Each structure stands twice: as C-alpha cells, then as structure tokens.
Model the fold of this input.
Amino acid sequence: MQQSAFVGAALLLILLVVFWSVIWPYMVGIVVLGAVGTLVWWLWRTDRLLRSRDRSWRREEEVKAGRRTLAEVDVMSGTEFEELVAALCRRDGCTEVRRVGGSGDNGADVRGCLSDGRTMVIQCKRYAPSRAIASREVRDLRGAQAHFEADVAIFVTTTRFSRQAEDFAVNNGILAIHRNHLGLWNNGARLESLISVNGAGQGDTKHLRRWKRTYGR
Done:
C-alpha cells in the first residue's frame, strides 16, 4: 500500500511538472482563495470573541455599578429604593421601565416589560427588617396588576413576608422578592432566575428565630 501511495504521488508530481504552464494560474487562484477564506474566517472569529468579551465586561461593570450592600439599601428613601429596583430591571434587559410611584400610583411603583416582552407591575416596600409584609399589601398589588392589566406582578421588599402574605403571593402567581432574594438580585442574579425560586429562601423555623434575634421581631 505504501508503494502504491508513493507511485501515485510520483505520478501526480510528474503531471504537475508537465502541465504546470497550463495549470499554474488555477493553482495560484486556489492558494489565494484559500488564504482569503482563512483570513475572513480569522477576522470573523476574532470579532465574535471580542464582542463576547465586551458583552461580558459590560455585564460585569453593570453589576458592579449597581451593587450595594443591603445596609446601604436600608437607609435609602422610598423613592431611591424604587429607582434602584428600576435600575436592576433595566440591567437585566427589561424594557420601557419607569418609576411611577407617588400619589395616585394605583398600587404601582415601577412599570415596564420583562426581557421576554411580558408587561410587569412592581410594588416596592423599603421597610425595616424588623417588619413583615402583611397579606393585605400583597393583595393590593394583585389589584394593581388587574388595574394595569399586567402579565406579571412583582413585590420587592427589604424585609420578609408574613406566612399569609407569602402564601397569597405564591398561590396568585406574584413574584415575592424578600430580603434574601433582594440581596441575590442586587449582587448580580438575574430577575428571571428569581421567578423559579419564588416562595423559597425565607427559611424554616430555625431561620426565622435567627431573623428575629437579628432584627428584633
């Protein structure tokens, strides 16, 4: 087999020498096209890598710019907290995000659209961690969702939800972002990732006892 391959290579070389004056333009063309194709592929691949790195860098910078400790969030005014929530939404690709809180807000502090296009209405409560969100406040958000005909309702707070409030939120499809999840969101977790863990994270009875020891209630 090796001998056959050698003979074939020798014949090919002889043919190239004999017909070189005829085929050399085609050979040069093939080489040039190959070189151009390789260059185009390399430029395309380099552009993709640079764009990917740029997106990653911008994402990291956005997270760093929006990162605050929960202690800093606790001393914000209500308006500042609403602006923070709106900024986190924009960071995660939400569109048409605007703060609408204030007198006559009909139970909505922030409105906009999720990255998948669904409309959302958000209620923001910057409460001391020693307080708990009552079920009536979550019910008010359900009314705001109906009023604005929003696809998704989100309640964001710096404290925890009472058991009744948490149950009402989960049973009515309201995303309840309590203090623990707010910390995750504030430190880079995407809003969509919090939807999948709705109703979790406030801990068991042991966790609640630690919470009360820490925050007084």
